[in-house]
Write a structure and sequence with these properties.
mainly alpha; 6 helices
């Protein structure tokens, strides 16, 4: 008998991917009431950045090399930084208030993504074996962790 966990794709088993998916849902909800004038501006920017986070985590998890995996995780982290900035812009423009659940999801996703990156980088089979001298493709993996 096949267990449910065996049916899942590798990225679907990652808590960070599940958090990123919840973040996408939250971003879509909070941007729905944004003014029509933002439809092709801030609304689309936030949604695109949000969708790219779980997409890059999934694509990285499907890659065969650790270096490629880390590169896609780095892109996901960059998209999280975009979301953080865009949320601040939305707040300053009065489209949303501080303390929204989206910010808690953003912080949690950042923290879990940074933990995954550190875990992969420190694993015995990490990029250190394939790249000499070793240089992390992800500068400052602790940035944005709260």
């Amino acid at each position: 008998m096949i267990r449910d966990s065996e049916k899942q794709r590798p990225h679907e088993r990652l808590e960070v991917w599940r958090d990123a998916m919840a973040l996408v849902e939250s971003i879509y909800r909070i941007t729905s009431p944004f003014p029509d004038s933002e439809r092709y501006g801030l609304t689309m920017q936030l949604r695109r950045a949000a969708v790219s986070v779980p997409s890059n985590i999934a694509e990285g998890a499907a890659r065969r090399s650790t270096a490629e995996y880390l590169r896609f995780l780095s892109m996901a982290r960059g998209s999280l930084a975009e979301i953080s900035t865009q949320i601040e812009i939305a707040r300053r423009l009065g489209h949303m208030e501080a303390g929204d659940i989206t910010e808690a999801l953003l912080d949690r996703t950042f923290a879990r993504l940074n933990a995954l990156i550190r875990s992969i980088e420190s694993s015995p089979r990490g990029v250190r074996e394939t790249h000499a001298p070793y240089e992390s493709p992800i500068p400052n993996p602790q940035s944005h962790a709260r």
